[in-house]
Amino acid sequence: MVVANPRKLRLIYGNPRKTDRADAEYLARVGRMDPELLAPVRHGGRQAQADRGVLRARQQLVRTRTQLINHVRGAVKSWGERLPSCATAAFARRVAVAIPDALRPALDPLVRQIQVLTDEIRGFDEQIERLCEERYPETRTIGEERCWGHTGFWDTAARRAAVGRGGRSLTRPHPTSGPAGRWTERLDPRPGCPTARTSRILSSSSPPHPSACAPPMVDRILPSPFALFILLLTGALAACSSEDGPTGPAPTAEFTVSPERGNTATAFQFDASPSASQNDQAVQTFVWRFGDGNGAEGVRTSHTYSSAGTYTVELTVTDGHGRTATAGQELAVLDEVELPIPANMALPEEPAFLDDLLARVDHPGQVYDAILELGVHPTLANYHLAAPVDLSPLGLGRTVYIPTQVVPQDGGEVPPHGRPSLYFIEAGTEILSGVYLTDDGVALRYTERVTGEGAQASSGDLYSERLVTLNGETIFQAFGELEILDPDRGHGRVVLDRDANNIPLPEDRQVKVMVWILWSAIILDIEEADEDAALPPTPPIQDELEASVSEPDELYEALKGLGASPRLLNFHAATPVDLSDRGLGPAVHVPVQILPESNREAFHGRKSLYTLSEGEETLAGLFLTREGMALRYMTREVGRGELARTGDVYRQRIVTRDGEVLYEALGDLEILDPDAGLGRIVLDRGPTGEALDPPAVEIWIIWSYITITTEDRDST
């Protein structure tokens, strides 16, 4: 069976008496004489139709992507800005950072879809390349010649597609060749000849048309629509520069490194966005070499070095013409500052200096001077300003922070053991600014103004924070810049994000926000404060204090006026205690300093519990746990004489800062060693006389200066 193309037969389409019967008769007669005169059509198979579906699907994706890109560029242009020019395949990556923030809600979803379409188109490209290689090998010419529109590709592929896919030969008798003559359009394949130049020659006996390009030529055959799709798309995939090579200058390679200094824990960020093409082809590839045998690809990447040293980082970029450029930078990597985390804050059952203290003290009036001689000074701290702070980035978990008291610095009587405001310490000066306490132990917080000009700090000044155990071991040190938030009220913020070498700390080691309130009288970690803790995130008296203070020197008197005086606490004499029998679990007890009567009130100390008058109550110390803070009040309920005796009755109350009673009990004192001030009290009954089981047992050492707890009633 022959499928004729009637449009190629004038006898059919030009017949003035055209009928179906007449057309059939003429077709039969011509077919009997020479079937080739009917320009027979050969249909493609199902496989060809399926392959054509791949081409059409890709074409539809390309059209959709083009519309989206045009929409994004138009929207940004109507906003008054322009997106950078780039290759279509790189559009989503290159323009994502250039879209104005106000347009991002509308355009970011489109940019993401453009990237998805680009990935799908790339997949179609790979599929079409496989089709050309496996089923249409004649298209390899374009890959071999590396020239779009090259005659070898067109002629070879067209003939193969026409013969096997229903192409029609564009042949007819040449006017000068006689009955046997044929003519054919041919494209000159020589590099010097114009691509569109044609010549007519006789396919048999006639000489070729005169031309400066004389190599043998191949008949040009008009391909079918399917073959034309294959030719166009495959040619686009393999397109490249001419044999003369790329034109224009090479691209420029440039990149940035952040941070500029780091250590073996630093994840360095590398960005090649400053690199640019200097011709009509965008930069296509970015190849990194980090100098330690590792590498990466992409516009942006990150890398962490395993050992310290100086490394040369190289970036090589390649544009669409194949031109390359390389840039390099030297990067110094230091060793990480290693500190023990989590830190060993554990307290011994009794202070290390206890034996030396016992050797110096014969009665309560000597305790304060002996403490000063041993160099374990008490600290004027204000538990009214305590706040919860989460030190999980340091491995210390949830803590209670008690600031040391800011005292006046100009004129008047200055209470001892206080400190100036952190805003007014001289550059290079370090002071004890507060204490962190958990049931695991104690850490002292030292703050130093590292850099800064003038008597008062300003934004940008560099501060250092050190956490130190009671035995002097540094467990954390970091640096950060001060930011003044409210100069009139002394509010500021420090982000501790650098180590001792001024190198950025890893994210999981940063204490992100330390907020200084009222010239650093109160220190908060706002972002990390646990609202479920027993302590409120901010001290209850903060609002009243802010309303009555306009400068640092007014803090001390304002606190006294609010009934929130500081206390002289000695954190060096802190001991671990178990309050499980009182429903509070493990804790740290910090005693209020015992002082002689002459300076007890001025220095905010207390009496020895042995010298309390009958009915007199005193704040003996603080209990600190992970859940918060409690105050320990002791009252000599029954007792005669200036100095307590065995059998005297004492009352213990454990209350919150707000006065809520957490525990209350009575117990009898037993003097164990009157010369050393050693005694024991068994709290075995409630405030109304009911028996408590089990009782709580406390051991008082050096006239109740140091307190330890025990489960053994008979322990000494």
Question: How would you sum up this structure, described in words?
Answer:
- The N and C termini lie far apart (120 Å).
- The strands form 6 sheets. Strands 12-13-14-15-16-17-18-19-20 form a 9-stranded antiparallel β-sheet, with no helix packed on it. A 9-stranded antiparallel β-sheet has the order 22-23-24-25-26-27-28-29-30, with no helix packed on it. A 5-stranded mixed β-sheet has the order 4-10-9-6-7, with no helix packed on it.
- The longest helix is centred in the first third of the chain and has 33 residues, at 46-78.
- The protein has 716 residues and is α+β, with helices and mostly antiparallel strands.
- The model is unreliable at 142-245 and 528-533 (pLDDT under 50).
- The chain is elongated, with a radius of gyration of 45 Å.
- The protein is built from 13 helices and 30 strands.
Q: Into which percent range does the helicity of residues fall?
A: 10-25%
Numbering strands along the chain, what is their spatial order in the largest sheet?
12-13-14-15-16-17-18-19-20
> Total strand count, please?
30
Cα end-to-end separation: 120 Å
Main sheet record: 9 strands, antiparallel
Low-pLDDT parts are: 142-245, 528-533
Strand content is 25-35%
Overall geometry: elongated
Q: Structural class given helices, strands, pairing?
A: alpha+beta
How many DSSP helices?
A: 13
CA gyration radius, whole angstroms: 45 Å
What's the mean pLDDT score?
78
